[in-house]
Specification:
The protein is α+β, with helices and mostly antiparallel strands. The protein is built from nine helices and 18 strands. The strands form three sheets. Strands 3-2-5-6-7-8-9-10 form an eight-stranded antiparallel beta sheet, covered by helices on one side. The termini are close together.
């Protein structure tokens, strides 16, 4: 594995006010062992098929869902597939996997490590949250017969730690605000670190546009873009009137990535409560998106994702934290799937511009990074053996 970044050399900077993941660690997960991947505002995983690009993004999404409070069984419906292939069971027939990350923000770098038992039953068997060399939360499975782990969190009061049980099917870090009162400086430090971790993780949008579904007309509804971008026409109908400035940028991006002249991107009502998306060619001709190729449709959908935000995308941001202090992270497996070199280049350049502003981050996987990873600011993680 090789890692490179074309960003300008880092200078001594103040702590970022927007929490963001700076490292993904897969100690034992699927094809990865003892792996550490740096994450920048724009990170592209590259490598041949089977090198583990999808697995890395799947682990990131799993951490995000756990940070949002999802139950372990919802996050890992097939947990055995996450266990490294050559991992041998212990004397109690137990096998599992370990994932973690680092999030930087106002509290400085905060590290999270999670150990999951996949067999014989799915449960979290260990978790550690640390910052500044101090263990703020640590859990361990003490009694396999109980559906709970023993937790100890930093107190720094009359007692250095407080102990108590936590469920073994939820991320303890996400539950700390419900269990820690914040009476001491130590407890307040625990809460601040946990909040930083959760805010960074839960504002994640995993995107994989499905051209087949995007071709159909869609009913008007909430106007929040689904993971497969099935309701693209509905979202275009909504966003055109909400932010003319960003919509103009979308039209410019579509013009650069789609064949033929493009003067506008529209959603037109069909009279039955549905809308369909079209490209205005500028000469009285409107091309229904159903006539576009798969690559053009994926390019359009991904450009729309990069130019919108949590209010439009189907995500669950931290409602108790001001939007100005959050960053949306887009996960895009197969970012260049179906795209030609020109489209992939335009998309990465758009992503670089949007990520530079700090409101959005992108972690994507591409098959061949040579033509598209030469933009300044791109962190390239090459998984080629």
């Amino acid at each position: 594995m090789t890692v490179s970044s074309l960003a300008a050399p880092a200078q001594a900077e103040a702590r970022p006010d927007r929490p963001g993941a700076t490292e993904l660690r897969l100690a034992a997960f699927a094809a990865h062992r003892r792996a550490r991947f740096p994450l920048g505002p724009l990170t592209l995983f590259t490598g041949p098929s089977g090198s583990g690009k999808t697995g890395a993004l799947r682990a990131y999404e799993a951490l995000a869902r756990l940070g949002g409070g999802a139950a372990l069984g919802e996050v890992f419906p097939d947990p055995v597939a996450c266990v490294p292939e050559r991992a041998r069971p212990d004397a109690q027939r137990r096998r599992g996997f370990r994932i973690g990350c680092t999030v930087d923000g106002p509290e400085g770098p905060v590290r999270l490590e999670v150990a999951v038992q996949a067999e014989p039953e799915l449960r979290i068997v260990g978790e550690r949250l640390t910052a500044g060399g101090v263990t703020l939360l640590e859990t361990a499975l003490r009694d396999p017969g109980r559906r709970a782990v023993q937790a100890a969190w930093h107190t720094a009061g009359s007692s250095p730690v407080t102990r108590g049980p936590l469920p073994d099917d939820r991320l303890g870090t996400a539950l700390l605000p419900l269990r820690v009162a914040g009476r001491t400086d130590g407890e307040r430090r625990v809460l601040a670190a946990a909040e930083q971790m959760v805010v960074a993780l839960r504002s994640v949008y995993a995107c994989d546009p499905s051209p087949r579904r995007m071709r159909a007309a869609t009913p008007l509804g909430a106007g929040r873009l689904l993971r497969g971008c099935d309701n693209l026409a509905e979202v275009l109908w909504r966003t055109r009137s909400e932010c003319g400035h960003r919509y103009a940028h979308l039209v410019t991006a579509v013009r650069a990535g789609c064949a033929g002249p493009v003067t506008d991107v529209l959603a037109e009502p069909l009279g039955d409560g549905t809308v369909r998306a079209v490209l205005d060619r500028g000469d009285g001709v409107r091309t229904h998106l159903g006539l576009l190729g798969d690559g053009e449709l994926r390019y359009l959908a991904l450009a729309l994702v990069l130019l919108t935000g949590p209010g439009v995308l189907e995500v669950d941001p931290a409602g108790e934290v001001p939007a100005a202090l959050q960053t949306l992270t887009v996960l895009a497996d197969g970012l260049d799937r179906g795209l030609d070199v020109r489209q992939a280049g335009e998309l990465v350049r758009l992503a670089a511009r949007m990520c530079e502003r700090g409101h959005i981050r992108l972690v994507g996987a591409v098959g061949d990074a040579v033509p598209v990873c030469e933009e300044p600011g791109v962190t390239v993680v090459d998984l080629t053996p």
